[in-house]
Design brief:
The protein is α/β, with parallel strands linked by helices. The chain has 12 helices and 7 strands. It has a 7-stranded mixed β-sheet, sandwiched between helices. Strand 4, helix 7 and strand 5 form a beta-alpha-beta unit. Helix 5 packs across helix 6. The longest helix is centred in the first third of the chain and has 50 residues. The N and C termini lie far apart (about 160 Å).
Length: about 400
């Protein structure tokens, strides 16, 4: 049993230790400790000041680089997409202002941003899955839709890819893909906007409704982590299916994401769709991606990526995970003589061919009439001309013949 003396000894030991600590703290040991702490605080303050100065310098340097790149963007992309018809697929939530910037840049590069297809929320809403399935089943016979990634039945992704690519079902009526596009709009699944068209934008056979030769898929990112949120994971799967279908139907495709150059202390700033495409071996080799399309450098890289994709040269560019480099190699300029640009050439217009043949025949007839008139004309028709010709010939002979007198 512990007696009172044990408690007394313990209390004395505690107070003795406290007293020794006070004495040492107020003496040389305390002074040394305080000096050490002050030195550490001062070092941290200086380090913070140096880091802030470095950050300010880096910010000013980046701003100067951005200004320089902005001034060089036009000559950097000029004539890289001459005559190329480019379509844009805007996934639900994509930034319309960024889409406008990309369309303008395509125009600066000499391309023709002919189509903007805006996918609505219904293309990813779980409650409209039945509507999407019915639409795919209804429209698949009209278009040459590719094989789906999973299952045997057509999907909205495969039908949409065929519509954007302008791929009619083999043996069917030419231009059926336009009918399928109108039906998708009626169902509220997509909004199709043809550049430069007004109310006549949906007229079959309109010249500027030819299918695009290359497609940019603009991704808005996801609000939730697809690895943790099942709904976000399903949305990501549908988006990857759309990209894969575009590649499968043979349309050169570039996926454009944003934020690839941003810094995050935890996690990865790479757009989820871009990261998923790069990680999928079945898709990565047949499409390109740019993860910083919201920057000047990324937009230049996007133009270059489109050009390389037209030559079936695919790659992944930016600063995010899986990027091969900041930008593709600089492609050569495209000749302005090639108005159609690379890629599929649309079939000739029979009406235009008939008009051309008629004009050629008329030109040939007028030429024959002119020659016949010259040969059969009388002295009254050609006398003046003959005399003038003789006069000129005589003058020329007199000038060129040296005098013998």
């Amino acid at each position: 049993m512990i007696d009172f003396r044990y408690h007394l000894v313990s209390l004395v030991a505690v107070f003795l230790a406290l007293a020794i600590g006070v004495v040492l703290g107020a003496g040389p040991l305390g002074q040394e400790l305080a000096t050490t702490l002050e030195q550490q605080v001062e070092e941290l303050r200086e380090e913070r000041g140096a880091l802030r100065a470095e950050l300010d310098h880096t910010t000013r340097t980046n701003e100067a680089k951005d200004e320089l790149l902005a001034s060089l963007t036009t000559p950097a992309v000029a004539d890289r997409l001459t005559g190329v018809r480019v379509g844009m697929v805007l996934l639900p939530g994509a930034d319309p202002d960024l889409a406008d910037q990309l369309r303008r840049l395509v125009s600066v590069a000499g391309g023709d941003p002919v189509l903007t297809a805006r996918l609505t929320e219904d293309t990813e809403d779980p409650d409209t899955a039945a509507t999407r399935h019915e639409a795919a089943t209804e429209l698949a016979p009209l278009v040459a839709d590719p094989e789906p990634r999973e299952g045997a039945e057509p999907t909205l992704a495969t039908v949409l890819a065929a519509v954007v690519a302008g791929a009619d079902e083999e043996g069917g009526t030419v231009g059926q893909w336009r009918s399928a596009a109108l039906r998708l709009e009626d169902l509220g699944l997509v909004e199709m906007e043809w550049e430069g068209n007004g109310d006549d934008g949906q007229l079959p056979g309109a010249e500027d409704q030819r299918a695009p030769q290359a497609v940019v898929v603009l991704s808005p990112g996801l609000e939730a982590d697809p690895a943790e949120d099942p709904e976000a994971g399903e949305i990501l799967r549908l988006r990857v299916d759309t990209v894969a279908a575009l590649a499968e139907v043979g349309t050169p495709t570039v996926v454009a994401g944003v934020g690839g150059d941003h810094f995050e202390l935890e996690g990865d700033s790479t757009d989820e769709l871009v990261a998923a495409v790069r990680a999928d071996n079945d898709v990565a080799g047949s499409v390109s991606s740019v993860d910083h399309a919201d920057t000047r450098a990324g937009q230049v890289a996007l133009v270059y990526a489109i050009r390389h994709a037209l030559e079936e040269e695919y790659g992944h560019w930016g600063l995010g995970t899986g990027a091969e480099g900041p930008a593709p190699p600089v492609p050569p300029v495209m000749s302005s003589d090639d108005e159609s640009g690379p890629g599929p050439v649309p079939p000739p217009d029979p009406l235009q061919e008939s008009t051309d043949e008629t004009e050629n025949a008329d030109d040939a007839e007028r030429t024959d009439d002119a020659e016949g008139s010259g040969d059969a004309g009388g002295p009254g028709d050609t006398g003046g001309t003959s005399e003038a010709t003789t006069g000129h010939q005589a003058a020329a002979t007199a000038t060129s013949t040296p005098s013998t007198s």
